[in-house]
Amino acid sequence: MIVANNLSKRFKPAGAGLGKNKSSNDVVAVDSVSFNAADNSITGLLGPNGAGKSTTLRMLATLVTPDSGSAIIDGLDVRNDVLAVRKQLGFMPHNAGIYPRLTARENILYYARLCGLSRLDANARVNQLVEQLDMGGFVERRAAGFSQGQKTKVALGRALVHRPQTIMLDEPTNGLDVMATRGLREIIRQLAGDGHCIVFSSHIMQEVAALCDHIAIISAGRIAMEDTLDGILTRTGETDLEDAFITATAQLNTQEIAS
């Protein structure tokens, strides 16, 4: 389970000094983001490119330190329990690079060993993932020349190899064709059904509407609305997620102007 509370992050603009003091010219990537993601459930972080989705996930993954706010993952604090959080968490970043000179199997084995699995356990776990992710046709091939769908499966295998309870996927269907996207959706549903907490970011309305049990709409670094799909439609008075997204973000902008 993930509980994020008022997470914020600013970055210095390109060419600015490296001082730690905040400046009015700092880029606000994430501004007081709060949301919950439950076990046995799929939570979608929905927003356009540049909305703050990736920065939010990177803070939760302990790769970026929040300027303020807090987050608890499976009872562990992302600030104070960094190594313990990483053991509990599987994270597939956007456009996760895989080593092109290694085979698919070697890519996943390498990460398994980094995560502390013994050689015997790592090999057994990779064999399980090859079957689960349907990688038998390319697992012994070098990754150079893989399709986007094959790269995504290898990256997902790396994220799952240490059996994490909580799994975060940043734009996982980017560049996938229809069949590969459908296959990935089934894998995500299976993981949630097995009791995992799944969080994935996307800017694709149909994908989030079809897959997610819970949705957090993010715009300009802030959460505009968080609820089930039916809850968001009811609260906005709309009949589809695209219109609800527009209404929710407009309401957020109105609140900011009023304040």
Describe this structure in words.
Helices cover 39% and strands 24% of the residues. It is α/β, with parallel strands linked by helices and 259 residues long. The strands form two sheets. A six-stranded mixed β-sheet has the order 6-7-8-3-9-10, with helices on both faces. A four-stranded antiparallel β-sheet has the order 2-1-4-5, with helices on one face. The model has no long low-confidence stretch (mean pLDDT 90).
What is the C-alpha radius of gyration, as a whole number of Å? 19 Å
Helix content: 25-40%
pLDDT < 50 runs, ≥5 residues:
none
**Strand percentage, roughly?**
15-25%
Widest sheet: strand order?
Answer: 6-7-8-3-9-10
Distance between the termini: 32 Å
**Structural class, from helix and strand content?**
alpha/beta
Described by the principal axes of the CA atoms, the overall outline is: globular
What is the N-to-C succession of helices and strands?
A: EEEHEEHEHHHEHEHEEHH
Largest sheet: 6 strands, mixed
Tally of DSSP β-strands = 10
Mean pLDDT across residues: 90
Number of helices, where a helix is a run of at least 4 consecutive DSSP H or I residues: 9
